[in-house]
Amino acid sequence: MSWIDLAVLALLGAGLAFYAAGSLGFLRFPDTASRLHALTKADNLGLGLVALAAAIYGGSLAVAAKIALVWLFAVIAAGTTSQLLARRARLDEARLDDADSAPDGGLR
Amino acid sequence: MTFAFDLILCLMILGTAAIALFVRDALAAIAFFIAFGNLMGLAWLGLDAVNVALAEIAIGAGVTGVLLILARARLLALGDAATSTGSPLLLRLGALAACAGFVVLLAAAVLSIPPESGLDRVVAPLMPGLGIENRVTGVLLAFRAYDTLLESFVLLGALVAVWSLAPAGAWPGRPADPGMADAPMRRVAGTFGQLLLPVALVMAAYLVWAGSDLPGGAFQAGTVLAGGLLVAGMGGTIGLPSSDQPLLRAALVLGPVVFLAIGLAGVAAGGLLVYPAGLAKALIVTIEYTLFLSIGVTLALLVAGPPMPGASDPDPEGKG
Amino acid sequence: MDLPLPVLLSTGHLYAVTGAALVGLGLYAFITLRHPLRQLLAVNVVGAGIFLILGGLGRGPDATDPFPQALVITGIVVAVALTAFGAAMIVRQAQTRAAAKPAADDNENPAP
């Protein structure tokens, strides 16, 4: 096993660990904001590490550049959707507050 | 890939499909359907069919997913949550027996046919004559070009069918705005759309070009273009076009018409859809570039839906 | 890194049989589900199963037949066109029904 194989395995393992942790948080955390917090860990670090492993495994600069582009747009898309999801969650929360303030003072 | 990987993947495909079909909440069902589509894409990779994997993930999971989410949102606005409701026990038992029997028969039939790639050996020696290396593109645009020509018109026909569902008085008009109602959300999506649309165009053009020799092609590229157009439409970067815009109509029919014209011109070279020797690659690439544009615009409009009353947008800039 | 699992089926047969199971699952859902949007999902699952049968049976020992691949790509595009038409029809039907309700406000565009 060469150094390159070792590096690929280590990066892949670390990336998958972040994915697992992020998925676990997504399933177990109570509200949208903290679930997003868990997901961003998986998206940014997990994907970055796996992409890095794939780029090294690919073995050529052209492949690595393509993977870097894939990573870049995945991260931009993830950032955009996180913003949208967080905003939607806040709007829904505000609507729930309004609905609750009428009958008995906001016990959710 | 190993047998264990394939087996786990197949079980996950069946599992996500079952959840997508039988979970109560419609949005959860669609989410699992998108996951199912992505796993199907992996299955196609397992079958060494990268062209199909690209199409399945882009169209089967991506476009169909957006389409269903949009339909669900429009139903929800009308008070229909599309939750799954149970049917009578007798019906369920009967359906279970019938479908189980059918699966056994179908599986037995499938297992009686040995899998083989016989036509691959037939196609391989013919590829040098076309000047391209992607055999699937060769089948789509040369050996079975007739199917693909008809299909490009089927797609156009589907859009005409969707448009024909426009309510009285809404024609000609724009589809209902798929954009976000909340201003800050619209700005975020708009920034992303501004960034994505030119990138999607470049990437789609690359996919068509690469499709001659590597996995890719007009359908996959058209879907990428449709994705860029839809994101830009949701963020208000481009306005949705009115259904009677001449430029839009031209973009819709360009691909099928160019395909048909080249096919008819082939009569001079020996028959319908025959490419003259030496010109095959040039003609295939021409067809693919025009087809990808039409497919992209058609798919985006299929997702947007029929023209709706009151969906007039003051911004006439969007050409689709 | 092959796991010590007995290879019961060839790769092609494994995916083709999975496709057969998907067809059955989708048919069952199509019969028992009530909402048209959910039935549309079921039709898509049936279609995906048929595609897998086609692709799996074209999987030879060293290559995958390009003909079923091209057929499946065509099929995927036709399936999305059908789904778009179905979804548009379901939404339109719901709009017509909502407009026909007597309780709804009377200034709604009357549907044909």
UniProtKB/TrEMBL annotation, chain B:
It is found in: Cell membrane. Signal peptide: none annotated. Residues 11-75 form the MrpA C-terminal/MbhD domain. It comes from the Bacteria. The chain crosses the membrane at residues 6-23, 30-47, 53-77, 89-113, 153-171, 192-212, 218-240, 252-276, 282-304. The keyword Cell membrane applies. Its main location: membrane. Keywords: Cell membrane, Membrane, Plasmid, Transmembrane, Transmembrane helix. Residues 191-301 form the Na+/H+ antiporter MnhB subunit-related protein domain. It is a multi-pass membrane protein. InterPro entries: CPA3_antiporter_subunitB, MnhB, MrpA_C/MbhD. Pfam families: MbhD, MnhB. Belongs to the CPA3 antiporters (TC 2.A.63) subunit B family. PANTHER family: NA(+)/H(+) ANTIPORTER SUBUNIT B (PTHR33932), NA(+)_H(+) ANTIPORTER SUBUNIT B (PTHR33932:SF4). This is DUF4040 domain-containing protein.
From TrEMBL, chain C:
The keyword Glycoprotein does not apply. Its main location: membrane. InterPro entries: CPA3_antiporter_subunitC (IPR050601), NUOK/Mnh_C1-like (IPR039428). It is found in: Cell membrane. The keyword Nucleotidyltransferase does not apply. It holds the Pfam family Oxidored_q2. This is Na+/H+ antiporter subunit C. It comes from Rhizobium rosettiformans.
